[in-house]
Design brief:
The chain is α+β, with helices and mostly antiparallel strands. It has four helices and seven strands, in the order βααβββαβαββ. The chain binds coenzyme A. The site of coenzyme A (COA) has 19 residues, from strand 4, helix 3 and helix 4.
């Protein structure tokens, strides 16, 4: 099944248990439940994506002074490659636009080919590199910095 419509709702503290299952499944270095707690507490925009009332993924963005930052985007393994990551990104871009952001930034591991391909297909461009940004099995891994301009009228990168 591809491209069925997702529903989105704000993440609550009660969701964190489920969110952590996905985190542990998809990352070698997952966020902790404390990080999600803190993100909700400080007012970051923490979202859950649902397909037929089942959680399929989660995301966190911050928006400050015209700039949004995608801090987390995760789709459960069994739901990957169904177009949900792209749908989630377009939803997050709309959210950021409503809060007057003109740009969305994100970091990604150079080794994460699936995510890089997803961000490229969603209209993000690589604009830089952050040295030793991520933990890695041996030492640290750099992050690639990606950006997408957000126009004030809805633009379509999902055709
Ligand atoms: C990255 C991620 C969010 C993508 O979500 P997804 O729902 O699987 O992606 P989509 O189905 O929307 O794919 C959109 C496009 O991304 C690219 N893509 C996605 N997964 C890919 C893969 N495994 N290999 C190559 N390209 C891939 C393709 O271009 C795809 O378009 P196509 O299916 O028409 O070819 C998902 O793989 C994920 O959650 N990964 C683990 C967590 C993670 O790494 N998050 C990003 C941290 S920066």
């Amino acid at each position: 099944m591809k491209n069925s419509e997702l529903c989105f709702r704000r993440m609550t503290l009660a969701d964190i248990r489920w969110v952590m299952k996905v985190e542990r499944e998809v990352y070698q270095f997952p966020w902790t439940d404390k990080i999600f707690n803190d993100c909700i507490r400080v007012g970051y925009y923490c979202w859950i994506a649902l397909q037929q009332q089942k959680i399929v993924g989660h995301a966190v963005i911050s928006v400050t002074a015209g700039e949004s930052h995608m801090l987390n985007l995760s789709i459960a393994r069994e739901h990957q490659r169904k177009g949900y990551g792209r749908q989630f990104i377009e939803f997050l871009i709309d959210e950021a636009r409503e809060r007057n952001a003109q740009t969305m930034l994100l970091e990604v591991r150079p080794s994460n080919a699936a995510a890089i391909s997803c961000y490229n297909s969603a209209g993000f461009n690589e604009i830089g590199c952050r040295k030793d940004y991520y933990p890695a099995s041996e030492g640290r891994e750099d992050a690639l910095l990606f950006a997408r301009h957000i126009s004030q009228t809805a633009d379509l990168h999902n055709s």
